[in-house]
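[audit] Reproducing an earlier prediction to check determinism. Same input, same settings, fresh worker. If the tokens differ from the archived copy the diff job will pick it up downstream; this log only records the rerun itself.
[audit] input (341 residues):
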Amino acid sequence: MTIETISGEGYETQERVGFGKNSWLMIPFYADPELPGYKEAVGRFAGFIEHSKDITGLNLAVIDDGSGLTPDLLNNVPDRLITIPENMGKANAVRVGLNSLLNEPANNLGFLVQYDGDGDQASKDIPRVQKKIVEISRGNPEIPALVIGDRYSEELTVTPNPESVAYRQSLLTFFGSIARTLGHDENVRDWVSGARAYTRRYAKEFLAKSKSGRYGVECEQLVVASLVGANVATAPLTVSRPRDTSTLTSKWLQNFEVFLGYEDALRERGKGPLVDLVGNLVEMLKQEVDEFDVNLSPLGEETEMHFTRQGDRYTALIPPDYRAKIFDTERNFPFTIRKNI
């Protein structure tokens, strides 16, 4: 085995040379070396990537976001191990990985699968997103295209946590409305999923525009897909861990703030009402709102938004024109976010 070490721009690359295929599986990973469960986490990750590589046949790039990984710890499985000395967050890790894979002509990157390394999704579902990205791009890596793995598909083989079903289904309907407002199909609803694939052309477009923070990268990839006119589709996953019944406020903030980072471009494309709505959500979250919900009335009527802060209940109204433009549907659904305490 030949190991090549390349230094530059704050990270180092250790690469196993000699692979002819041009499609890659890219997995960012972080485990705190100071925590007691570090060795176990790295061991589980090593098994996960070995199985993933075996069943996909893809070249494997691991982006170590400050975990102190070495080829030996990973059983020499990765074809490329990119090490970021200090934890900088997932969005930065994805950008570093794309920069490494795209900017070396010898790679001739074709298709790329981006997968979380926390065990949230199973290795056996990777071929599902692989197949779908080839399908919607017609096998041409120069067509901008993005596929997102749906963790709530009807093909799940693991029963979801019953307590989270109503909460998550409400979010999915809301997220589907946002996707539709961006010009995508409403079935593109689980756009924060960590399982996804895209073409070389889309990877270049995203890397040129990306500026999101730690947890905003998946949302940003959806927004960029809208701005560059990429084909976007979903791939049903069969395995996903039981979902929580609430979501950290910080994660909501970092995802919703992505829209504000692209405010001018979105407004130029007639998405101003979406930016306004998301901006209001960001302001409420910054005030540490404990809970809010949206019960959508029939199309054309005012929609009430109720929220609670420090025990006090508030009501806000979404004007009919916002309601009609953003939620173009006759269906009613509740939307609730609870802050973890």
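[audit] rerun output stored. Observation attached for the diff report: The chain has a mean pLDDT of 80.
[audit] end
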